[in-house]
Amino acid sequence: MEFHQLLERIVKDSVAHAKWLNTLSFMENAGARKISKCEHPVSVTLIQLKHAAEEHRHAYYLKKQIGKIDPGLCKTYESIELLAPTATRQYLHSLDVKACRYLQKAFQLTPEELKYAAYLFVTYAIEVRADELYPVYQDVLTKESSKIMVKSIILEEEGHLEEMISQLNEFSADWQIHADNILVIEKELHDQWITAITKEVSQLDYA
Contact, 35 vs 119, CB < 8 A? Predict the structure, then answer.
């Protein structure tokens, strides 16, 4: 099942759709918390603060959209209220761990420098993914005449990607080579995540 079809199935099932929104909200929240964790105690940049704030707002916005389906659904981030909870929780964590391992080998960094490098490269990979995921989701929402919209998130994620590229340019002249390697790591983890969601969604009863 390709991604567009997967989202069509999700959007047509109100419980699955609420869980999908909650899963995206969980991931935006996890991303925001990781950005905050990477902040330098003193020399945190304005862009970093902006990103953490916007990712937190995305988490809140997506969670709030669930109310348009059913205000009683997905009150927490407990496993029962997420799609493919194990793969969802592992996705960002594994990306972080594997990216840190790669960056340490590539750049020989101090722990503080590694934190910042991980913020740059992991956030870049996530923004590249978000730039693919949210427009497809919005396309399905529009097609299904859903009350839910993610257009505001799409605009902000595009802005984030530009900001990440400008920070990466300052970090290293050959950042793109390393970023491409991290995108390969991300793709494998993303594919595992989508496979787990597809497996769960394909078991839904449409009778």
Answer: yes
Contact 22, 66 (CB under 8 A): yes
* pLDDT at res. 207: 37
Residue that has been written with the tokens 């407990």 in this structure? 78
Is 7:137 a contact under the CB 8 Å cutoff? yes
For the chain, 207 residues long, the average pLDDT of each consecutive 10-residue run is 93 97 97 87 87 95 97 97 97 96 95 92 95 97 97 92 94 96 98 96 72
Give Cα separations from 68 to 8, 21, 195 (angstroms): 17, 11, 27
**Tokens coding 119:** 């913020």
Lookup: tokens for 73: 């659904």
- Listing DSSP states for 30-83 in one string gives HHHHHHHHT--SS---HHHHHHHHHHHHHHHHHHHHGGGT-TTS--S--GGGSS
